[in-house]
Amino acid sequence: MNEPNLNQPPPTEPTKEKKNTPPNLLHFLIIALLITIVLNFITSTMASKRTYQIEYSQFIQLIESGSVDVVQLEEEQLLLTLNKTADESQLRQILFANTEEAPQMDLWDQIFYTIRVDDPSLVERLDENDVRFYQNNAQTNPILTFMASWIFPVLILYVMYYFLFKNMTKRMGGGTMGGIGKSKAKVFDAQKITGITFADVAGQDEAKESLYEMIDFLHNPEKYEQIGAKQPRGALLVGPPGTGKTLLARAVAGEAKVPFYSITGSEFIEMYVGVGASRVRDLFAEATKNAPCIIFIDEIDAIGKSRDNQMSSNDEREQTLNQLLSEMDGFDTSKGIIVLAATNRPEVLDKALLRPGRFDRRIIVDKPDLPGREAILKVHAAKVKLDKNANLKDVALATSGATGADLANMVNEAALRAVRFSRDVVTQEDLLESVEVVIAGKEKKDRILNPKEKQMVAFHEVGHALATALQRDGMPVTKITIVPRTMGSLGYTMNTPEEERYLLTQSELKAQIITLLSGRAAEQIIFNEVSTGASNDIERATGLARSMVTQYGMSDRFGAMGLESTRSQYLDGRNVLTCSEQTGAAIDEEVRAILMDCEATAFNLLSDNRQALNDISAYLLEKENITGEKFMDLLALTQEAL
Ligand code: ADP
Ligand code: MG
Ligand code: ZN
After folding, report:
1. Number of domains forming the structure of the chain
2. Taking Cα atoms as reference points, which of 349, 363, 360 lies closest to residue 317?
3. pTM for the whole structure
């Protein structure tokens, strides 16, 4: 039942544009006229500043005193400029004798004019006094003057306006000048749709399952109607940036093979005030015409922000949102329209948008887990030539917390590295190095540390590594390096868990804090003072300790009391205190106690293993990089020796 024109962009309707043109042209004319009036006013005041009217008798006096350079004879008036050699005080006497206050002016830069009287001896007089003169016959045709000062500017403005708008509307994908309010949604041709299908989206199996069902609604509505089930109107894709929400929506369109209208929330409000609402209306009208189809609103939080936000009310956005709400209520579900939207800030969305009957479904698109990461790596690795010994599972293990976008980026970095080394396949080494590049930046070999600094970095990193290796709850070390990186680190220790963890116990959290603080502890033990190199460690350790107290109920003092809540869960995950200020101060005390305790533990741990610290650091200083295995070997050697 595919109609033949289904996959073509709908023709723009001339009738609609005609209807829109007159008010626009009127607006334009009024504005153009105003601009022209202002322009004319400015030029006339500028011109009058440089010309100064004098009396005919003064004109004669000037001529006779021999101070006139040139006279221009015109039909109505005489224009003159003064001789450079004329005496200024005499001139002023002639010009301003009858004026109360002589105007400030540069006499020689000035054009004087006087109304021409019927004086037959004028030419003779000029001749006698050696004044240069000429007749200016350029007839000032009143029609021409009018054209030049009124019609011309309007025309030029019109041309400018026309081209500007043409470009703008072209960019918006709309029609010509009249189409400002038209929706900018692009119609994707289902067949041509860059070939994205669910196969290109890896690891989001639950999300895909939900979306599959929605596609099925579009294709087999009878199956659902027969039992009395209603088609859901919309689904909201929720998750952190880079997890593949936009990708999923495009894949849905590719799978469903129906027209796909994609628009971002901000595009509704951009540029013109008051068009957001009409864009929403147009979008749904267009979609209804082409049903079955899918509407996708990316970054919907731009329009869907809660309306009860007192601080910054934004009428434009509210109107747009109201229009969206009513359109979502209004469309006929049996027609087969599905609205998809994506956001990473679901908590700011208006409640009305989330109620059943609008975005009934919320599809979580979270950061991928271990198998998910492996699958995503596979999808992207399929696009590059991969060495057959490459082990994507190891890469997945090393990239806990990475999003799909991060992983795609890593594979690409690896391929670039392979090219840089003139290899024709991407090796495991390329992949692991690119993981580091994405996490810590590129190696910065030209940053020269002085020997003392380098030593400090080495002891610091080995401190971290030893702490993980020596604690029961620590994670295995995979690499230690003291090569500086572009993103600011002077060296680092990489730990890779043996498996993905979803829960951490109190002792594991403490082990992490101890590990973080042991870089600093190593500096303290060896050099008897600490450096600035531990700032990031301290920040992370403090964050962990704080969460233990405020969120995980892991302090004796507060027990299971919740003291903080998380905002923007999918973005920066900022925490907000939900307790009194006094309690806040007490929390700080608790956090400090945990940190002090862990620091002492780290200090003792490393002091007890000072030999290993010395030996491994010396080796690291020499080699700059050590693998996890080498590290464990060295550790075992020193332990045997004791
Ligand atoms: P979001 O819209 O959630 O911010 P995108 O959909 O724009 O993220 O994803 C950005 C890029 O990351 C995609 O183009 C794709 O290359 C990659 N990507 C993200 N998630 C996945 C995934 N699950 N499978 C494959 N590639 C992914
Ligand atoms: Mg997106
Ligand atoms: Zn450190």
Report:
1. 4
2. 349
3. 0.64
Helix 451-470 × helix 628-641 angle, to 10°: 80
- Whole-angstrom distance, CA of residue 594 vs CA of residue 97: 94
| Residue bearing tokens 């005489």 | 78
Catalytic residue among 461, 564, 590, 599: 461
* Ligand (nearest to CA of 537): 3
Structural domain including 428 reads: 370-440
Model confidence over 40-94: pLDDT tens digits? 888 777 766 667 888 888 888 888 888 888 888 887 788 888 888 878 888 888 8
Write the residue with the smallest CA distance to atom 12 of ligand 1: 405
Q: Do 429 and 301 share a structural domain?
A: no
374 classed as catalytic: no
Say if residue 516 is in the same domain as residue 532: yes
Query: Which residues form the pocket of ligand 1, taking CB atoms under 6 Å from any ligand atom?
Result: 201-204, 241-247, 342, 376, 379, 404-405, 408
pLDDT for 145-202, tens place per residue?
Answer: 778 777 887 788 878 877 776 655 544 444 334 445 555 555 444 444 556 888 889 8
What is the C-alpha separation between 446 and 605, in angstroms, rounded?
Answer: 35
Query: Comparing C-alpha atoms, which of 429, 483, 492 is closest to residue 454?
Result: 483
Does residue 167 sit within a domain? no
Q: Which of 440, 474, 500 is the last residue of a domain?
A: 440
Q: Report the separation in Å between the CA atom of 373 and the middle of ligand 1, taken as the mean of its atom positions.
A: 12
Mutate to test the pocket of ligand 1, among 204, 243, 340 (most ligand atoms within 8 A of CB): 243
